[in-house]
Design a protein that fits this description.
Length: 361
């Protein structure tokens, strides 16, 4: 299987399966002499790990990361990066492969079972194997390293819609994101989501969501005008996350409703004579290059395909079957996609920061 590598200069490759002994990644291209310990990575993994509330899968994984290579003590006794590949690993501790025994020959609707079997002639039926969202833990770990490179850039992810219930942007409060199990910036909507998702979960069903990720204090000039557009790489990064079905930047789909006068982000000078934008429909990126405004990206996550309601499908022997998926699954997989989206934003920005440094000094 190819295409397990992401990035240009700052690159990472993940390995492992949902029910294998471990998952891991190798990060290449990280500059040397950057202080790095497990404590720089673990807090982000703790945000993504399963079983943190009744609203996520009850699989119990501590997701304790180990750094296997790429760091060493400098003359001051501080552990820093050496510029060599950084290998990270997380052991899988709570697999329940027996949950999948009954459906090992059946193709779960909405999952990659059918396409994997058709392409490779073999698949790991235990939780989806390589296609499982379990892999995203290593993206978050790689993102922890990327954040050390872009230390001055602030990244904020939030859940802004669950099903048809949307936040009120006038109520956006960054401080609220860590105060509820949904990464919701609107305290009032977080309360509504509690009861709403309880009903979804008790019915054995699932629901989709929209996540918004913002990056502030981004320098002007990251990206390129043609084949390494910053928005192109960000869209690719977000679209690569499991269950993501659409990505938009800035005004996104709404730009189709605007006139040229409404859409253009006009520019004036502030008191210091520096350019200031009067709006941000472009989402912080113009012509593939960062403008210095906040980068704003949203992505939609489909409902978790593993549900307790029987769905029609076929098995690998060519027979029609009715299938339901037992086991432990997220009623809204979008919740744990928030730290994953943050990580992918950090990875792309770190990559483009290094690319810009290489070209422009």
């Amino acid at each position: 299987m190819s295409y397990n590598l992401f990035g240009h200069l700052f690159k990472f490759m993940t390995w492992g399966e949902s029910h294998g002994p471990a998952i891991g990644c190798v990060v290449d291209g990280c500059p040397p002499n950057i202080p790095l310990t497990v404590d720089d990575i673990q807090p982000f993994l703790d945000l993504r790990k399963p079983g943190t509330s009744r609203h996520t899968t009850q699989r119990r994984e501590q997701d304790m990361v180990k750094i296997l290579s790429g760091v060493f003590e400098n003359e001051d006794g501080q552990q820093v990066t050496t510029g060599t590949p950084i290998s990270l690993m997380i052991e899988n501790m709570d697999q329940r492969s027996k949950d999948y025994g009954e459906i090992k020959n059946q193709f779960r609707p909405g999952h990659a079972d059918f396409t994997y079997q058709s392409k490779y002639g073999i698949r790991d039926y235990r939780g989806g194997g390589r296609s499982s969202a379990r892999e995203t833990a290593m993206r978050v770990a790689a993102g922890g390293i990327a954040r050390k490179i872009i230390a001055d850039i602030k990244i904020t992810g939030a859940l802004v819609q669950m099903g048809e219930l949307k936040i009120n942007y006038d109520n956006w409060d960054d401080a609220q994101i860590s105060q509820n199990p949904f990464f919701c910036p609107d305290a009032k909507m977080a309360k509504q989501w509690e009861d709403y998702l309880d009903g979804i979960r008790k019915a054995g069903s699932s629901i989709g969501a929209i996540i918004e990720v913002r990056a502030s204090n981004v320098p002007v000039g990251l990206g390129a005008p043609i084949y390494a557009k910053l928005d192109q790489d960000l869209a690719s990064a977000m679209m690569s996350i499991n269950a993501v079905k659409s990505v938009e930047i800035g005004a996104g789909d709404h730009a189709a409703n605007l006139t040229g006068e409404q859409n253009a982000d006009q520019i004036r000078l502030d008191d210091q004579g520096d350019p200031i934008f009067l709006s941000n429909n472009a989402g912080g990126i113009l012509g593939g290059i960062s403008s210095g405004q906040d980068i704003i990206i949203r992505f939609a996550v489909k409902p978790t395909s593993s549900i307790l309601t029987k769905r029609q499908s076929v098995d690998k022997f060519g027979k029609e079957v009715d299938i339901l998926t037992k086991g432990r699954h997220d009623p809204c997989v979008g919740i744990r996609a928030v730290p994953v989206g943050e990580a992918m934003m950090a990875i792309v920005l770190a990559d483009h920061l290094l690319l810009n440094r290489a070209q422009c000094g």
